Amino acid sequence: MAVLVKGVGWAPRPLLPVVQTWDLDARRWVRALRRSPVKVLFPSGQVLDRKPGPGKQPRKAAAEAGPHVQRPKQPPQEPPAQTPSTWEESGLRYDKAFPGDKRLSSVMTVVKSRPFREKQGKILLEGRRLIADALKAGAVPKTFFFSRLEYLKELPVDKLKGVSLIKVKFEDIKEWSDLVTPQGIMGIFAKPDHVKMTFPATQLRHSLPLLLICDNLRDPGNLGTILRSAAGAGCSKVLLTKGCVDAWEPKVLRAGMGAHFQVPIINNLDWEAVPKYLPNDTRVYVADNCGFYAQTQKSNKASDHGWICDQQLSKLHKYEEEEDEDLETGASKDWLPKLEVQSYDLDWTEAPAAVVIGGETHGLSLESLQLAESTGGKRLLIPVVPGVDSLNSAMAASILLFEGRRQLRLKAAHLSRDRS
Asked: 77 φ, ψ to 5°?
């Protein structure tokens, strides 16, 4: 009984202390949470306010701020990378050539042959700059062969719709390329028509009443250089007669450096059709292909003056009977056009002028001399020191064209000064 009375109101103590694991491991437990709440409530009743990260504010504060406070915009997420075989945003797709694919070789066989090129009306353009110039001028592309997708993406997308795009190995392009360092992209275009082309506005604005006629130019490098000089001098048109190398041959295109898409070029003309492309009252001048002392020679042989070569004379049947007599005696020929010789730096641009440049091997044709005579033109002589046979045809063309440009600009300046 005493034991029971004594036990009333006595609180027995625990034999072992109780450890509050929540208090000890609370922070570790919070760090283990995958989600990060704004407030953490511990079992002991303690409330821990978690600081918002940089650039963020608590939900309560954001709600109290009102709708007029704009939250910082999150940076837009970039779309996932496109698959290498399609551009979904433009609808462009390309094919990948596998071993044994003959599309590149079959096309190159066509565009590298002039007869096939003229029959099918296709040309080859190589290099990103030349292709971009062609697209800008309105040339119509048919097929592109490329080794890296980046080369194709450098071109305007709207010009590539409906074009056959074929990815090939760089070794295949290198095998067919004419460049020392291939650029990894080739374009097959429809043969451009000068009437449908869109030439640069600056080129048209600086165009001069000066034309160039190429006669018997057989060297691709010379023709390409001449076309480049014609574009630089501001020629309004370039005419190529039959007997010249094709203006759209790959070597001519490479030497032209984009001149084909800066000045109108009319290719493969008969001499009967040349006057149709000349403005009214045009005077035709021929570049003299002889040295300084040729004008003092007494011989009337055409080959002595560098006008036309003996091979061309032999092809003219009506002159064969006169050759034995007249060429040996040096007698004057009534059939040979008589053109006055004039120094190239004297005024010869009083009317629209056309300059005829002949090839170094075959020289000028008889038709060019007859056209010059009928229009009141002359021979333009570029004097050289004794012992020098003649100038390169591309060099002679550059000298004459830029001299014509100088004369025309000088006249325009005088006219503007008189008006003011």
From this structure: -80, 135
